[in-house]
């Protein structure tokens, strides 16, 4: 079973936190808050997204690229991961 299913509750909690932070950013912009407040909110969102990415990435590596995964499947999963990382790091 996928690691995202095992950690579903924890991951959804993180997603909801990110959603709340994005809503706070929207409110800050609508309320014409100071640039520093907007920047702080953006930094918080970035940190939260990076934390979510790290958690899912670690699970993916452990589940899909471990020694007990057949070589062909591991190669396919590695290529998928490389594609996602290239996209994420642009």
State the end-to-end CA separation: 30 Å
Count of β-strands: 0
Most strands sheet: none
Fraction in beta strands: under 5%
Helix and strand pattern? HHHH
Described by the principal axes of the CA atoms, the overall outline is elongated
Q: In terms of structural class, how would the helical and strand content be classed?
A: mainly alpha
Helix content: over 70%
Mean pLDDT: 94
Measured on Cα atoms, how large is the radius of gyration? 17 Å
Number of helical segments with 4 or more residues: 4
Compact overview of the structure:
The protein is mainly alpha-helical. It has four helices and no strands.
Note down, in words, how this protein is organized.
This protein has four helices and no strands. By secondary structure, the chain is mostly helical. Helix 2 packs antiparallel against helix 3 (35-64). The longest helix has 30 residues, at 35-64. The relative contact order is 0.11.
